[in-house]
Amino acid sequence: MTDTFPNTIRIKHCSTCGTPFNCGDTLEGSKCWCNDFPPIFTPSEVVDCLCPSCFTTTCSIKIEEYVESVTPESATHNKAKDLPKTSNIVEGIDYYLENGNYVFKAWFHLKRGHCCTNGCRHCPYK
């Protein structure tokens, strides 16, 4: 369900939890916050938009399922490296914070497409 307010704000309701949220797409061409996330969903998997919390959770689950299927032998030929490049990194998807430090997750490394040889904790290329 979408409620449209003056031409710049689109309030949607999450198809999972019902929470209202700002879509971010506008008639003026602004893009939604969800465009910062990897394009890993097909339209048939989600009935309508999800709120930031549900979207992050669902995206994390899909990514973790994919990462678990990657072996060091298949890592260099993974799908993540072929996704459109973005300069945005997303907490909980690409990294988490530990004692104030960024710890990059396997998904971040898979998007790079190769090992950086820095001995990263979650390196999928080992």
Which features does this protein show?
20% helix, two-stranded antiparallel ribbon, 126 residues, elongated, alpha+beta
How would you describe what is shown here?
The chain is an alpha+beta fold. It has two domains: 1-69, no CATH class; 71-126, no CATH class. Helix content is 20%, strand content 14%. It contains two helices and five strands; from the N terminus they run βββαββα. β1 and β2 (10-13) form a beta hairpin.
List the helices and strands and how they pair.
Elements: E1 2-4, E2 10-13, E3 20-22, H1 52-69, E4 95-98, E5 101-104, H2 106-112
Antiparallel strand pairs: 1-2, 2-3, 4-5
Q: What share of the residues does DSSP label as strand, in percent?
A: 5-15%
Give the ordered list of helices and strands: EEEHEEH
Physical arrangement of strands within the biggest beta sheet: 1-2-3
Q: What is the domain total for the residues?
A: 2
Residue windows where pLDDT falls under 50 for at least 5 positions: 1-6
**Helix/strand/pairing category:** alpha+beta
Number of strands: 5
Report the total helices.
Answer: 2
Helix content: 10-25%
Mean pLDDT score, rounded? 83
Q: How would a crystallographer describe the biggest sheet? A: 3 strands, antiparallel
Categorize the overall geometry: elongated
Distance between the termini: 46 Å
**Cα-based radius of gyration, to the nearest Å:** 17 Å
